[in-house]
Write a structure and sequence with these properties.
Layout: H1 3-20, E1 28-31, E2 34-37, E3 40-41, E4 46-47, E5 50-52, H2 59-80, H3 131-134, E6 137-139, E7 142-144, H4 150-157, E8 162-168, E9 175-181, E10 184-189, E11 192-199, E12 208-210, H5 220-227, E13 232-235, E14 238-243, E15 246-253, E16 256-263
Antiparallel strand pairs: 1-2, 2-5, 3-4, 6-7, 6-12, 8-9, 9-10, 10-11, 11-16, 13-14, 14-15, 15-16
Helix pairs in contact: 1-2
């Protein structure tokens, strides 16, 4: 074996050393003066390197061949480096947004307001009349009553049917003055009226009645509606009231009033 063949063998050994560092040599055979390297297996790439011993080379040719073989082995090492595939798993997270609650205002149908009727003015309540006020007298439109001064009343009542006269009071025996008008007598003691009588037997045309309403010819219902039922005593055709010191007597004939007597005894 000459020097050139030794150089080739050395180059082959050097190449085998490089390949051995990158993979596994399964088998080595010598056939017809050549060395065949078995297949070098990696996880991704398979490479085969064959070195053939040929004719003798010059020193420069042997050096070039060794350098070329080394470069190929280096290249094979680089290409056989396992490539690791990196699988990037992209996880897409889908967030489902809860539907927003939409508040829809539904218009409420309302009936149109009816125009309000104007309030009717209420009649003022009449003050409650006392019994004293109910039995006051209306004579031809002039009002007077028990307790009034006769001097203030006499001129308003008009002409008397007959002159006034002094007479003992039937209540106390005191001397009283009696005034006679159409259908009515008025008695006063010390100038103060204490008794009034209305009598159909002396009445001709005057308008005489109680201020509360009933007059000559009134019915029992008219009297009760005007004076009420408190203090009333009924005795056949005679009604008698006794309220707050007042005494009232009303006489009926055929259901119609023909006589009234109103008095306040303490004054007579």
């Amino acid at each position: 074996m000459n020097r050139q063949n030794l150089v080739k063998i050395a180059a082959a050994v050097l190449a085998l050393g490089c390949l051995a560092s990158c993979g596994k040599i399964d088998d080595t055979n010598k056939k017809d003066g050549s060395v065949t390297l078995a297949t070098l297996k990696t996880s991704t790439t398979t490479a085969a390197v064959t070195v053939t011993l040929g004719p003798e080379l010059t020193n420069s040719e042997a050096e070039e061949s060794a350098a070329e073989t080394t470069e190929k082995a280096t290249t094979t090492k680089k290409t056989t480096t396992q490539k690791t595939e990196t699988t990037t798993t992209t996880t897409t997270t889908t967030t489902t947004k809860a539907p927003e609650t939409v508040i829809v205002e539904v218009p409420v149908e309302t009936e149109p307001e009816q125009p309000q009727e104007p309030e009717q003015p209420q009649e003022p309540e009449q003050p409650q009349q006392s019994f004293k006020d109910k039995v006051r007298i209306s004579y031809n439109g002039q009002e007077f009553g028990i307790g009034d001064n006769m001097a203030d009343v006499e001129g308003k009542l008009g002409t008397q049917l007959s002159p006034s006269e002094e007479t003992p009071s039937c209540l106390s025996g005191h001397t009283a003055v009696v005034y006679h008008f159409d259908g009515m007598d008025v008695s006063a003691y010390n100038g103060v009226i204490y008794q009034v009588t209305i009598d159909d037997t002396t009445h001709t045309s005057s308008d005489v009645k109680l201020v509360s309403g009933p007059g000559l010819g009134a019915s029992a219902d008219d009297v009760k509606n005007a004076l009420g039922g408190d203090g009333l005593q009924e005795n056949g055709d005679v009604f008698r009231y006794g309220i707050d010191g007042y005494e009232v007597q009303i006489n009926f004939n055929d259901g119609k009033v023909f006589f009234y007597m109103i008095q306040f005894p303490e004054l007579g």
